[in-house]
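Dear Dr. L.,

I hope this message finds you well. Following up on our conversation about the binding site, I have prepared a predicted three-dimensional model of the protein together with zinc ion. For your records, I am including the exact sequence and ligand specification that went into the calculation, followed by the structure tokens. Please feel free to forward this to your student if that is useful.
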Amino acid sequence: MSFRVVLNSSSIKFSACHFLKKPSQCSRLHGHNYYVSVEISHTLDENHFVVDFLELKEKLSSIVEPMNHYILIPTESTDVQIQEDSESIEVITSNKRYVFPRSDVRFLPLPATTSELLAKYIHSKLKDIYQDKKILVKVRESRSTMAIYED
Ligand SMILES: [Zn+2]
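The resulting structure of the complex is given below.
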């Protein structure tokens, strides 16, 4: 028998700036307010919980907060070249060149910063904590669009 808990909190969000390869309007630097929800399934523990909600909320916040109000750069992209010096990050993609202050950038080990891959990234971080549990992560980037990754 398996139980499922849902953390669907409007307080689990992060705002970030990114660019994608396509479509063309998404290749321009732009931002989103991302809302993150998590579902975890498992049998109950000795306290009759799937997980401790407060702990889950705290762990999830510690995963998303480092991305909050940063420019997200995918380091595994074949379309993005990154050069750095002590103060700045130069990013070359397609025919564009951006230079950002180092302090404003977060590198993510992803081929792109789509909502799908952000959901997978958050999932992998949660899986490190809750290794034996089934996890589903939803990342909503607008009122009408959401990406889901689950194991
Ligand atoms: Zn976007």
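In brief: The mean pLDDT is 95.

With kind regards,
A. P.
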